[in-house]
Amino acid sequence: MESRWDDGDASRCEGDDLALRVYTSRLLGQEEALVLHGGGNTSVKSVYKDFFDRPVPVLYVKGSGWDLKTIEMPGFAPLRLDETRLLAERESLSDDDMAAQLRNLLLDQTAPAPSVEAILHAILPAKFVDHTHTDAIVTLTNNPKGSAILADLFPDCLVLPYIMPGFVLARQVAEAVKTHDVSQYQGIVLSHHGVFTFSNDARLAYEGMIELVSRAEAYIERHGAHEHPKAEGRLDLLGLARIRRQVSAARGRAQLAVVDLSPQMAGFAGRPDVAEIATRGPITPDHVIRTKRVPVILDQEVQPAVPEVERFASDYAEYFQRNATAGLTMLDPAPRWGVWRGRGALAFGSSLKECGVISDIARHTQWAIQVGEALGGWQALPEAELFELEYWVLEQAKLGKQGKAKPHQGKVAVVTGAAGGIGRATGERLHADGAVVVGLDIDPSVEERLAGDGLVGRTCDVTDEAQVSQAIDDVVAAYGGLDILVCNAGVFQAGDKVHEIASADWDRTLEVNLTAVQRLLSRAIPYLKCAVGASVVVVGSRNVTAPGAGAASYSVSKAGLTQLARVAALELAEFGVRVNTIHPDAVFDTGLWTEEALERSARRYGMSVDEYKKKNLLRAEIGSDDVAQLISTLAGDAFAATTGAQLPIDGGSDRVI
Fold first, then answer.
1. CA gap 148, 237 in Å, rounded
2. Where do the H-state alpha helices sit in 93-201?
3. Contact 455, 437 (CB under 8 A)
4. What radius of gyration do the chain's Cα atoms show?
5. What secondary structure, in 3-state letters, does 418-459 show?
6. Which residues in 26-113 belong to E strands, given as ranges?
7. Residues 177, 183, 185: CA angle, nearest 5 degrees
8. Which pLDDT does position 493 carry in this prediction?
């Protein structure tokens, strides 16, 4: 590992302790082998001007919820330094009392909650303190010979056995500080936990961390433990969808399933001993709140019921019973990641962000496990100590901040005709309601119009079976399944009288509006049968129940589409797949309606444009967003017992009624 220190960048922080603290914190955060997704913490001791402009000794310590990779000045909580140090002199301090006292000691009540390691940072005498959960060093501590290895590698460090983070760890270090001159040490190594380095100089504290980690990396390389098997990852899409459904059931809500088929992870998953070595525990107990203690081990060929997930949930319940104390409530028993034998790994989460965090941790975990095995054995903490951290009140408080889930959180949706109008509005609505959405359209602009985290536009001609098949497969491969399908793509042929319509126009309209939907359904149904709250919403038309002259092919195609939806509802009900149809009318904020067309139609009825837009019983103007909201609601739990329905959204039509 090399130092990323840059004199030019550092010079811009000259004279500002907190700015320099931000700079070196970000240097640490850029190294995934040091900290992952909120792990680690840093601090600086300085002077704070209070409301009365009086200087107050202060400890700026990383705040909860901030990531060292992107932290800014507001991410550091300013604590009264002297009083924070006093907390370490108490014989005991409950977690709740510690959190309350640290909150009381904040010099800025709008600041984030201080790190649970704040007291430890305060008692270390150096100005700058850096703490990481470095893979290389923690991996060496997770070894039967860890003590001997550490003594040999780090004679200039204070090495301490594992103890619970928070106050008890601060007390342990406080006692060590009383009996050792820590200024003579390069750092403190905490078994199974991480490393502290410190100095009155920001660069020395940072580069001290880099140097210690480099020693561990060099040791691993010298002993040939850095080379691991690689293989080609292979994906079973239907098996993936089945796994995702079972994990979602265990967690009690929809989960995404993101696959890692990298050569490294596929090689790990292909090891004959993977089930034994992957289930000994995490690199550091800090990971347990995100990944649980162990992954689920999945057979290469997946059965419809996925018994491995059921066993995992049962084993988790037993683990809870073995370790629980009075007053604890068991968390959901679903796995957070899995090793899929001979294929790769899976991360399960309610969002792409959560899956990304878990995937990163899993990737580092497989490396650490294999290094540990090559050096004599992978040995994580005993389950009782991991359980203590998983159910630690301060860690549980982080989970409680996640808030209420959105109605489609963790679901996967595909919307056709998504470049504009109803399709685009529907994609955006479903995404706002928590779903990962892929919008398909023959218009390439869909890729720019739907572009965000979990909101993706894809160019696709719905009449091209190969393109549609590939699109559906890619959605399942990326997110684990398919739950919501909105069949919206369609074309309208104006002036379409029965005796005048050209054969090509008739064929094209039926191909897009009807035949393409049947082909799309045939490709999607195997995955919808494995979905979570599966719902198909077909966008029909008011013309189905109240056709007008001059729209023969459109009216016929939409009537056929409605009948197709009814048949699909009958066929798919036994699998829990709902199929419903909406019939919009007079939705004028779409590409079909230009200002000229609106004015022309309004004149035909002797109305103004505004009057024409509200030409319905409720005198309501209906927009694409209104239709999108109905579609999202229809696809959700409110209509969990509804299938085969046809709902108008037209403001009330006397012809339909």
1. 47
2. 95-104, 118-123, 135-141, 146-153, 167-179
3. yes
4. 30
5. CCCHHHHHHHHHHHHCCCEEEEEECCCCHHHHCEECCEEEEE
6. 41-49, 55-62, 76-80
7. 90
8. 78
Q: What is the DSSP letter of 286?
A: G
CA 479 to chain centre: 11
Q: Has this prediction a pTM greater than 0.85? A: yes
Backbone angles phi, psi at 538, to 5 degrees: -100, 130
φ and ψ of 77, to 5 deg? -90, 125
State the greatest distance between any 2 C-alpha atoms of the chain, in Å, as a whole number. 100
The arrangement of strands across the sheet holding 194-199 comes to: 76-80, 55-62, 41-49, 128-132, 194-199, 187-190, 157-160
Q: Are 253 and 410 in contact (CB under 8 A)?
A: yes
Q: Identify the band that residue 401 occupies on the pLDDT scale cut at 50, 70 and 90.
A: low
CB 482 within 8 A of CB 414: yes
Gap between the Cα atoms of 627 and 541, Å rounded: 12
Question: 171-196 pLDDT, tens per residue?
Answer: 999 988 888 888 889 999 999 999 99
For the stretch 479-523, pLDDT in tens is: 999 999 999 999 987 777 899 899 999 999 999 999 999 999 999
Find the length of the chain.
657
H-only helix segments in 124-254: 135-141, 146-153, 167-179, 202-222, 237-251
How many angstroms separate the Cα of 431 from the Cα of each of 412, 508, 573, 580?
9, 31, 26, 20
How far is the C-alpha of 418 from the C-alpha of 429, rounded, in Å?
12
SS3 state at 189: strand
pLDDT tens by residue, 289-341: 999 999 999 999 999 999 999 999 999 999 999 999 998 999 999 999 999 99
Please pick, among 391, 554, 605, 612, the residue that the annotation labels catalytic. 554
Supply 492's token pair: 């309208």
CA-based nearest residue to 578, from 566, 586, 588, 561: 566
Residue where the block lists tokens 């790990």 = 268
Q: Which two tokens stand for residue 159?
A: 């090495």
Lowest mean pLDDT of 191-200, 206-215, 595-604, name the range.
595-604
**Residues 6+ positions from 109 with CB-CB distance below 8 Å:** none
If residue 370 lies in a helix (H) or strand (E), which one and from where to where?
helix 352-374
From residue 350, alpha-carbon distances to 9, 290, 406, 408, 485 in Å are: 38, 12, 10, 10, 19
- The Cα-based distances of 630 to 30, 139, 297, 613, 651 in angstroms read 44, 52, 40, 19, 13
Round to whole Å and give the CA distance between 417 and 415: 7
The beta strand positions in 350-444, using DSSP E, are: 412-416, 436-441
Distance CA 593, CA 613 (A): 11
Contacts with 372 (C-beta within 8 Å, 6 or more apart), sequence order: 139, 142, 143, 378, 379
For the question of residue 554 being annotated catalytic, the response is yes
In the sheet that 256-260 helps form, which strands lie side by side, from edge to edge?
256-260, 344-349, 337-340, 296-298
Q: How far, in Å, CA of 236 to CA of 66, rounded? A: 37
* Mean pLDDT in residue range 616-645: 97
Are 133 and 286 in contact, with CB atoms under 8 Å apart?
Answer: yes
Q: Record the tokens describing residue 60, joined without a space.
A: 């700026």
Number of H helices, E strands in the chain: 26, 19
Q: How far apart are CA 111 and CA 559, in angstroms?
A: 60
| Residue found under tokens 């056929």 | 560
Residue in the structure block whose two tokens are 């999945």: 298
